[in-house]
Amino acid sequence: MIVISLFDKVEKTKKLLSDNTKWCYLGKDTCKQEIISNILSKERRFYLKDRLNKIAEEFSQPYLNFVSILGRHQVNQLTWWASRFASKSPYQTDFYLLFCYKILVDRLIDEYVKKQQSICIFIEDIWLFLDIETRYKGNEDILFIGNYSKIYINTLRLICRGIVFRILLAGRLFILRLITFYYYRNRKPTLAEQDCTTVGIISYGEKRALTSNKFEDPYTGELSSFLERNNIKVIRPLFALFPISLSKKIGKLWESIWPLILDVRVFDLLRVLKCWNPDVPSKEDLAIGGVSVRRLFKREILDEFSKTGFNFYLILYKIMKRFFGKKWCCSIIYLFENQPFEKIICIAAKDAGGVKLIGYQHSSVFKFIFSYFLGEGEKEFIPLPDKIITNGNNAFNLLKREGYPLEKIELGGAWRYTYLLDSTEKSVNYISNSKINLLVILPVDKYISRFIVKTVIQYYSDNSKVKFMIKPHPLMPIERLEIKKEEIEAFELINKPLCDIIDKYHIALYCNTTAGVESLLYGKTVIRLLLENYIDIDPLAGFDAPEIIKCYEEELAEKIEEAVKRIQNHPVSNDTTQSERFFSKIIPEVWLRVLDYQVSAVKT
Which among 105, 252, 365, 572 would be 20 to 30 A from 27, CA to CA? Predict the structure, then answer.
């Protein structure tokens, strides 16, 4: 028998299962997986391994084409590109993950029916559960266990959340505008003149960038200093949302920073009333590779309503159009990941006219970060900047393969990772009987971060060979992971940038973060934790090197022992040639040429 159950019915489901029935869990909340494991036992768990990623690979192009077809059909392109769905990024939307879950369930059912064996599949998402139940209605081999009224409760909850969040967004923007205006007092940046010779670098109001008396951008490094050394004036339009607590510090830097929140108007806030309502040609068009996604798409529309990114991006369009209309900058540089807000900036720049947009691809290109990838014909209508400067050959070649216009892409080098490209090799001497420092590097995702910490606690809270350090993501502090202090008191908490501590550890344990690439390129042994419930969006996916140890949750203890033995016996050093497979050294001439400045006497 095959049982498909919602998570909250695990106790009821347990009574119906035989003692040898395997179980698996399809969902992002690993806390729920822990609960199931405690109730049904870990020994009976069916490990999915790489099944999900094989499906994600198989259907990736049909998915990209599906989004492209829908996008081409939209009458209002602004509202299309303001949606999370149009970005295709797994950081923005769970649509493709749920679709892959759906295909995975189909294949597990087919496999276990043929073997005449039993399995229980727990589904986290109610919409996916009902989609699968509708698909297999009347099949006597499958038993569905779930609370069907939950779909109405879920719908009501999402609608209420959407209404509340819209009110909060409008309130936050209004208050942030008032407080920022108070500190700025109608002043504008000193270099903001209408002679159109200034370059703007769109930056983010983060605490780590405002620790001194100047703005230190962790993403673009020394780019502004390089431009100033070459007699190019620089101002920083600050992204419209930032913590209110930073307003005073930002106000002190008024000569070089312009908070874009100052360009919002009260009537712009009425855009919180808008809902994403895409044009759909017909029900038959809502299919990927012949598999219907009608219910999942309906869920996506409702999920978009429950959040306010869509509304904020519509407001951002008005903000950016006003800013571009000031004509303070001849060129604007922004971080390029092809996210929704970037497309809004591109549309606003086109409508306002008179400014050159340069997208700087500042980070790693991940295999399943679909925002970088294009569906069939999408390059014909997707909003793009005038130029895209990549930080390495990997990204340059990917954009080239994807069909981005060749005249738009340039290789300019990695401002963020210059310390990795130092020609001096730094090696670490390991002493076989000393304690090994292992840095656990957490990603921005709350569930994944919590899962990693819990897994490490379970296996290594009392390990005499290894000293554990934990580095949370700057946007996901340890307090948000809801982990008790006493559980991690044995671990050293690190909140410094990776470049400041990279000589302090020997092994990096990480998942889905560019910090893993940095550690590898600096000569560290890295343990890449693979998550069977998630599509693999790690920047090292598909890349093999002797220093990379791949492991799933159940292999962690064994793999850490392997890493410790390896580095005790075989010290490693950073290899700059390998670094340049990912990141390139700065090419000053490219930056000046793209910004339309003289390149005859470059000051690096």
Answer: 365
Q: How far is CA 247 from the centre of its chain?
A: 26
Q: Which DSSP category does 286 fall into?
A: S
Q: Which residues are within 8 A (CB) of 357 and not within 5 positions of it... i.e. 6 or more apart?
A: 331, 332, 334, 345, 346, 349, 385, 386, 387
Both tokens assigned to 195:
């002679």
Q: % helix / strand / coil in the chain, to the nearest 5? A: 45, 15, 40
> Which residues, listed in sequence order, are joined to residue 332 by a DSSP beta bridge?
200, 357
* Contact criterion met (CB below 8 Å) for 323 and 260: yes
Q: What angle do CA 396, 593, 412 make, to 5 degrees?
A: 30
Check: CB of residue 129 under 8 Å from CB of residue 146: yes
> What's the token pair of residue 374?
């294009």
Reading the block at residue 581, the tokens are 């497979």
For residue 286, give the amino acid letter: L
Q: Which two tokens stand for residue 263?
A: 């360009």
Residue found under tokens 């948000």:
480
Largest CA distance in the chain: 78
Write down the residue that tokens 């080098």 correspond to. 413
pLDDT in tens, 397-421: 989 999 999 999 999 999 988 877 7
262-303 pLDDT, tens per residue?
A: 999 999 999 999 999 999 877 667 899 999 999 999 999 999
The residue with tokens 């982990």 is: 483
| Angstrom distances, CA of residue 15 to CA of 80, 170, 364 | 47, 49, 47
- Which SS3 state, helix, strand or coil, does residue 123 take? strand
pTM of the predicted model, to two decimals?
A: 0.91
- Rounded Cα distance between 401 and 391, Å, is 16
- Find tokens 């016996």 and name the residue: 569
Q: How far apart are CA 247 and CA 179, in angstroms?
A: 7
Q: Is 511 exposed, middle or buried (0-12, 13-18, 19+ CB in 10 A)?
A: buried
